[in-house]
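testing teh design pipeline on a random one, pls ignore if ur not involved
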């Protein structure tokens, strides 16, 4: 029913977690997949193999999203190879601690560079191609933190709140070119990002209990809504923030 046959997708941060799950699911739905990773080469090659096993083409790029030149180089290489980018999933991100009163400039800068500025750079590089094509799908990965804030992670919450605002702004800005821009806002997800906190079984259980559906989702639980928003089934959806959090934060 959902088909991405003949489409090309760029996913940032495709080597692990949500990006990995989205790459495999979208390949299953028929899309060729290009993705970047920061340093985990082995994991990236495993994802490439999974995509190719499903009969799709795959390009994997080692590219630091904090560096604009590497973002532009990646987009240029995909367009040179495939001629187009139909779908863009802005997924890569970092989640770190920052206690106010002890502001660590490096941590703040990393979050702003990777979670926020890189998304401007990726979209700025991709959108001219989508405009030329006369269609495109952009799915940004936000967070419940961007909706309700997050103590000790205000820098992360601010970057994700910005993603939500950028989604709404770009939905209207790009609509004349038939480019849809939506956002998936996950709550807790069982990925490497949360390994540190989830290594405490009591904390993990308290998180599970706090979620009305009483389950901590796998990355695949987030990939499904991403696929939907990148498909023709969502053709009249733009500017939406879809909460994927088991009912734990019900505003957006
Ligand atoms: P992971 O930590 O599991 O994976 C992060 C991915 O991003 C990896 O592919 C990593 O590459 C890549 N990446 C990280 N930093 C950079 C960088 N500077 N340059 C290039 N690539 C980079 O993350 P998740 O799958 O958990 O998270 C994906 C998105 O979902 C993020 O935006 C996150 O904020 C959001 N999210 C996650 C939640 C969660 O609970 N996990 C909750 C809400 C939102 P490499 O493998 O090479 O390191």
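output:
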């Amino acid at each position: 029913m959902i088909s991405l046959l003949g489409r090309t997708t760029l996913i940032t941060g495709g080597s692990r977690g949500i990006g990995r799950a989205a790459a495999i699911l979208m390949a299953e739905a028929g899309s060729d997949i290009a993705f970047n990773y920061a340093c985990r080469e082995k994991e990236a090659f495993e994802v490439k193999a999974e995509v190719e096993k499903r009969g799709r083409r795959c390009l994997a790029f080692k590219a630091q999203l904090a560096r604009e030149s590497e973002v532009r180089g990646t987009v240029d290489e995909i367009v040179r190879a495939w001629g187009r980018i139909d779908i863009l999933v802005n997924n890569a991100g970092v989640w770190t601690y920052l206690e106010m009163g002890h502001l660590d400039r490096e941590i703040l800068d990393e979050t702003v560079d990777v979670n926020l500025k890189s998304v401007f750079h990726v979209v700025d590089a991709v959108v001219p191609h989508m405009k030329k094509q006369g269609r495109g799908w952009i799915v940004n990965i936000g967070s419940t933190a961007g909706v309700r804030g997050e103590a000790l992670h205000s820098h992360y919450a601010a970057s994700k709140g910005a993603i939500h605002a950028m989604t709404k702004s770009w939905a209207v800005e790009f609509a004349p070119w038939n480019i849809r821009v939506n956002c998936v806002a996950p709550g807790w997800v069982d990925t490497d990002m949360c390994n540190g906190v989830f290594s405490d079984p009591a904390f993990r259980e308290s998180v599970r209990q706090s979620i009305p559906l009483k389950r901590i989702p796998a990355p695949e639980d987030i990939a499904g809504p991403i696929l939907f928003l990148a498909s023709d089934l969502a053709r009249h959806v733009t500017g939406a923030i879809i909460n994927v959090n088991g009912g734990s934060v019900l505003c957006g």
